[in-house]
Amino acid sequence: MKKLNMSRRDFLKMMGVSGASLAASAGLDPFLLHTLAQEPVQITFGGWGAVAEDEGVKAAIEVFQEEHPEIQVEWQHTPDAGEYGTVLLTNLAAGTAPDTSFILSDQYETLAANGVLMDITDRIANDPLLGQENYFFEPQEAYRSAGGGDGRWYGIGSTWVAPQIYYNADLFDEMGITPPGFLDDEIYDWDTFVEICKQLTVDTEGRHPDDAGFDSENIERYAVDWNWGWQFLGSVIHSNGGQYLTDELTFAMDTPEAIEALQRMVDLIYVHHVSPRSATLSDLGMTNTQMLDSGRLAMAVDGSWALSWINSNELGITVGSGAIPKIVQPASIMQAHFHSALASSQHPDEAWEWIRFLATPFYQTHFAKIGLWLPNQTSMLTEEGLQTWLTEGIHPDNYANFVTDYLPKYGIAVRLPSGYIEASNNFITPAFDALAAGSAAADVMPAAVQQANDVLAMAMQM
Amino acid sequence: MTTQTSTRKTPFSWFFDWYNQLPMVRRRTIIGYVFIMPFILGFILWFLVPALVAANLTFQRWNLISPPTYVGTANIERLFTDPILPQSLKATFLFTILSVPIGLVFAFFLAMLINTPIRGIAVFRTIYFLPSIVPAVASAVLWAWLLNTEFGLVNYFIRELGGPKIPWLQDPGWAIPAFIILSTWGVGGSMIIFLAGLQGIPEVYYEAAKLDGAGRFRQLWNITLPLMSPIIFFNLVMGFINSFQVFVSALLITNGGPQNATLFLVLYIYRTAFQSQNMGYAATLSWVLFFILMILSLIIFRVAGSRVYYENAD
Question: Which PROSITE patterns is this protein grouped with (chain A) (predicted)?
């Protein structure tokens, strides 16, 4: 083969001419000029999550980049949510914040108020998909996303999560006990709940809490392990007509309704002996999941996200689900993190494209299918929409009722004000610890609420 | 050609030209500085600069997001009205006062045990030392399981022996003892230092004491302890400083709970800085920790330091 003696300049000339004529003949020249002229824009996306979330984000990035070859997303992953909050703050301080990020619900208001998050109100309103009426599950989405109380959007709620009961359906069947559900007449009232809990709790000799000689120090099976996180205790307070946080964004757990509700939680452990003492630290030792699986627990009150591991596919039992019991009315605090673009991003349009993509069905469906999330879009809650994510073996048979009936009626969205983390860490969580150790709610809550509200007031002044 | 090579300048030749002209004493001084330069740089970068920044932050309010603003002495005044600080100091002092002596006695006891010339002693030495090389995070997770009220191994044994179910990590009264157990588990480091000290005591002293009719306790009291006093003192100071800075286990196991019972000072500083987003107050708390450590170190040196016996001291 004869070697072509061509200089570099000649070669480039030839390639340019042939490329241009090819593009012109195909009518592609505007496209080619655009893509040749521009490298893909790189944006970063910070967040946390276990394996499922990590993989979900990576899968989403692949799909997004196929749809948007002009944007490259770099996923900056931190496994633990709390740790990510610190990582984000230090990055903000160092001026190395990502373009887009998960935002913890308890950091959202502070970040929005400090101008860290990009205002996306107009972008949402003008978006042909996200701007549609009833696109999001309302009114919670708009209420919660309007951080800072100015009616502007600084993030989109990634999803909704809420407390629910997980129960060992085999055990309920065996004992002939009607399990809880999500429809109005299936939700336990508190007395029924306690009564059923007593039937389900047994000591090592097979005695129940009301039996003579019941040994509360040697319980073989507990009826319920109730997560003592704020959403779970807050839901009980709302169920008794109280409030966790008022509309003025102050703690309200010192009202008679709240104190009564919290005392009922204490009584589950110390009066009725149907709940283990270690519930406050459910992440220690044997988890509620292992307890359910091994038959040492009949019910676990946990977040809807836990469905991704407390499900019939994962465990050796059939898992059922239902609403948490009501005191005077059903109530459930709905909460989750946000997807936001950061105001410091040099690529606001690309950042918006990515945030927008995360609120479209593909991304939502992925996480809804594995049981981690409840969709935040109304289109996924229609008869047709439900089919796209309800998954056999993950979602119990009655799960549609949770999202189509129960949550729209009884779900409560809350805003967590600036100063919330400090107030909660220093005063509210220790107060909950005291309750879990058996202190009376009336003795603990008024002082704790007062001190916590002082912190919120101080944060408001800053 | 040869001449050309010998006169070619290397990048640092100016330095060596200058260095070679110096008298020997100056050269040695320079070499000395070069050798301690890693420490000096580390001291400047990781202590002096952060300390100065912290001193400046004491007079600022900074939430890591917006620029710092000058607030005068507000952060210092807050120290006197902060309801959490006394609780945090109480937890830290209580833990230190209890865990340091217990750890010292236990490490000394173990060192004496593994100093016995029996077959397979290396295996025992390894076993006792192992816990101290388990990473702090792993050992925290492990102890969280062991101390679980309902299902933990510790409570299992206590109950098998007829004892009560102890809420180690749920009851504020039991949380500090739980952390003392945890810290005692990791005394392998001090134990090895004690062992090295014990092996440095010449056997001839014991032989002489035996000839004079001294029993085991008399030998321990009159030979071992005095000769070990510099090492005991060293371990005391280090144990004291370390226990004042307990952090990882508290963060991972209880996160300061229950009821702030394990909100040790460093954990409180971390929480104030990175969760409550109050860098200025966290810096102020850091200075509190610094002054406490400095004052108590001085007291220890004054009280215990004078009782230390140095064999080769003038």
Answer: TAT (PS51318)
Q: Calculate the alpha carbon distances from A366 to A54, A308, A383 in Å.
A: 12, 12, 18
Alpha helices in B114-152 (DSSP H): 121-133, 136-146
Residues of chain A with Cβ-Cβ distance to B275 below 8 Å are 82, 85-86, 421-422, 425
Residue of B nearest to A420 (CA): B276
Q: Are residues A97 and A122 in the same domain?
A: yes
Cα–Cα distance for residue pair A420/A428, rounded to 1 Å: 10
Q: Distance between CA A230 and CA A427 in Å, rounded? A: 13
* CB-based contact B150 A278, cutoff 8 Å: yes
pLDDT tens digits, A130-176: 888 888 876 656 666 666 567 788 999 878 889 999 999 999 999 99
Yes or no, beta carbons of B83 and A281 under 8 Å apart: no
Query: Distance, in angstroms, between A285 CA and closest chain B CA?
Result: 5
Domain residues for the domain of A222 are 163-334+419-460
CB contact under 8 A, B259 and A116: no
Q: Decide if A30 is inside a domain.
A: no
Residue A114 to residue B65, Cβ atoms within 8 A:
yes
| Same domain, residue pair A317 and A245 | yes
What is the spatial distance between Cα A143 and Cα A133, in angstroms, rounded to a whole number? 15
CB distance B170–A429 less than 8 Å? no
- Quick one: A252 and A359 in the same domain? no
Q: Given phi > 0 = left and psi -120 to 50 = alpha, else beta, which region is B162?
A: left
Residue A16 lies in a domain: no
Those residues of chain B whose CB sits closer than 8 Å to some CB in chain A are: 61, 63-66, 83-84, 144-145, 148-152, 164-165, 167, 169-172, 253-254, 256-260, 271-272, 274-278
Q: How far is B139 from chain A (nearest CA, A)?
A: 14
First-to-last C-alpha distance (Å) of chain A: 78
pLDDT value for A10: 55
Q: What is the pLDDT of residue A2?
A: 42
ipTM of this predicted structure: 0.78
Give the domain CATH number at A127.
3.40.190.10
